[in-house]
Amino acid sequence: MRYLPLTEDDRAAMLKDVGVASVDAFYKGLPLTPKFDLPDHQGEMEIERLMSVLSNHNRAANNGPFFLGAGVYHHHIPASVDYIIQRSEFLTSYTPYQPEIAQGTLQVIFEFQTMIARLTGQDIANASMYDGATACAEAALMAMRITGRADIVIANELHPQYHEVLESYVGDNIATCVSEDTACVIIQSPDFFGKPANYAKWREECDAVGAKLIVVVTEILSLGLLDAPSMADIVCGEAQSIGIPMSYGGPHLGFFACREEYLRQMPGRLCGETVDADGRRSFVLTLSTREQHIRREKATSNICTNQGLCALAFTVHMALLGEVGFKQLARLNHERACTLADALSQINGVKVLNETFFNEFLVELPKPADEVVKALIDKNIIAGYALDKNRLLVTATEMTSEHDITIFANALRGVLK
Amino acid sequence: MSEDLIGASRALNYEEALLWEYKAGDGSGVDLPQPKITKLRTGQAARESIGLPQLKEPQVLRHFVRLSTKNFSIDHGFFPLGSCTMKHNPRLNEKVARMRGFGNIHPLQPQETVQGALALMFELQNWLGELTGLRSVCLTPAAGAHGELAGLMTIKRAHEENGEDHRTVILCPDSAHGTNPATAAMCGYTLRVIPTKENGCVTLDAFKEALGDGADVAGMMVTNPNTCGLFESEITECAKLLHAAGGYFYCDGANFNALVGNVRPADFGVDVMHINLHKTFSTPHGGGGPGSGPICVADSLKAYLPFPCVIKDDDNFRLETREDRPTSFGRLKGFQGQFGMFVRALTYMISHGADGLRQVAQDAVLNANYIRVKLRDDFHAPFGDKVCMHEALFTDKLQKDAGVTTLDIAKAMIEYGMHPMTVYFPLVVNGAMLVEPTETESKETIDRFVAVMQKIAADVRAGDTEKFHDYPLSSPRRRLDEVAAARKPKLTA
Description:
Chain A contains 12 helices and 13 strands. Chain A has helices at 8-18, 44-56, 79-85, 88-91, 103-120, 132-147, 160-170, 199-209, 292-295, 308-345, 369-377, 402-416; strands at residues 124-125, 151-154, 174-175, 182-188, 212-217, 234-238, 254-258, 271-275, 281-285, 351-352, 360-364, 385-386, 391-395.
């Protein structure tokens, strides 16, 4: 078997040195299962054939017009990203606990933290969280720790799955109105229906009662065109849009940024700058006393493994885009969404509900959205996310061509007749 | 840019600047269509300066390639980190994960358009259920610690549904990984510690004492084999008592590599366990993730698992809805879990098959025991010369008095071209060194490791100890000032 280097001679020699007749000695007294109802080993050839069948049974985003967003976005990934993340030194390395031989990973984390802080207008950011939904839950827990208060208010249209995850983590604490017991107010921007939020209004509401303002961003590209939520206490969310494929929901990339004063209450890993014995600039995981391996039951979170390689992919993609490219990409997304909005609003009975949006908005249809979505699948169009009240959430990105928009509009017209 | 930094580069030993220390260029490393829009519909003016670097593709590629040369990895050499299972990451996994139909699908697509993905997840659920004997599987937790959270929340929900929410205590040995107590605290549980200092294992007596009458006990969290590398020999008896008292047995699956294909945790009384796909099932560690921590539960807990699991209706696969399982405690992560890691793990499982996985565990355990006996004269084994499982535990007791500690030994290993073993864990012994070779190392490599360790011990005995305080010397950096990093944290450029 190709992954097992020990030969029969090796095993015999080693068993002899250990002083046992066979490996059975190591499993003595343990409840053994002699046979499993599973097939035996296979080679690469057979496996590729098998897995290709499964892969081909999925309709990929680039197989036709695609307008689905709702928290996960279809963006282009430059070729260089995959080459970097597949390098042995990045792919098969571990958490950088031995910094002398992990400066590559550590400097990448430092650059990632810097990018996230600048994008969000915050002082500091951590090395990543699992995803936007869990980052949001951890932000709520952090706000509760900082304020010593119990209530969490969700103030605008938060992604329904983020809401569900919050319910699992802090369900008993979700309250309906802002009061002296409020630990935090959570707002999403753009909200689940695509509308950019008004940070200043919520900053005022929070300050009136001493609550923390948490801004959740599910489409990080929006920060290339919209204002940074620098007036928030915590900014968290999903960075999958940059460098990371949609991959049926994971692995993605949660990000977490906040003000410097909350540093010691932050969850997750932090990489800091220092020097080595020769005085050379170096990077190292720091402030570990917040974390589970030191603080155990008093840790700020139980998180250990996070999304390291995805953070690398993000950092590479952002480095390629740069200041000019990132803003240009954001503007391009908005332009495509405007073109889509114009095309759809020209269809009889279809109404664009958003006054403002970034790359995603609601349309109201003259019939149930799930029926429309189903009918359009038959025309090889993935139309968007169906909601109640005849509403459809549609998204355009730089991957959405004008041709796609024309096909979509024509097909929608046909389906609505 | 710092000239002395670049001036310090020598041959293939690079000093590399931060992205922001390069002179900003005048465009982007990505060519995009030029947007022509003037009137924005965002309701606000366009954002101005962000503070990102500005480089072209050749510069960016070179930057990250040069950074990569400062990293040690499994592909480089021996990486015997105890409890991390640093086995070879097969490249077939990467090839398959990149098939277009896997990477480019959206989690909210109508399910009839992603039957391949759902079939894959269903198959993975089956493999995990068959290998653990715990037939109900939820793939959504994002990593081991997240799996622990999922497991404890499942237990908590079960007790609530059965009117047993007065059970607020989790029993946990003192040798547990930090994520265990951290997770218990996140669930609102109080920990009651089972001491294991005497022999590294949970004894029935110590368990009974911690259990008491069990009325307040929700369950126990035990890693088996444990963090000392030993199989918990009395665990089946403890599980029986726990069950009789109405508690559930959560098994931390970090050390499953010792058992896979040979022993089913269901057979020693486990009710729920998480699996680390990035440990036992070879998905790459990536410098700190992504991982994946699915949980497998016995029938008694099936109703309370997080959702969604993948189910099969006739010939169609689909994701569960709330209506399918209203007693689930809910969603723990966005969407369906770390799907990209499912593809890799299943590819690995099918590669090995039942016969291969059986050999995986046996070779892992043989390698660890071989190291145990080869080093028995040079390093102190805290629990005597007991047979171990997939990892061997030593301490620095025989070297400490000469002024050479576990830390020094670890740094010496770096100098000799290997990654250190896990150090100072588990906390139940002083100066712990936990060595997990895994099954993907050749006897040659293991003999080389043994030789290095024997030389270190010999040098210490000979009084040649000064050098150990300076190691490593040849790595990209020497020992770092971690105190300064924490005292005045600088976390951004």
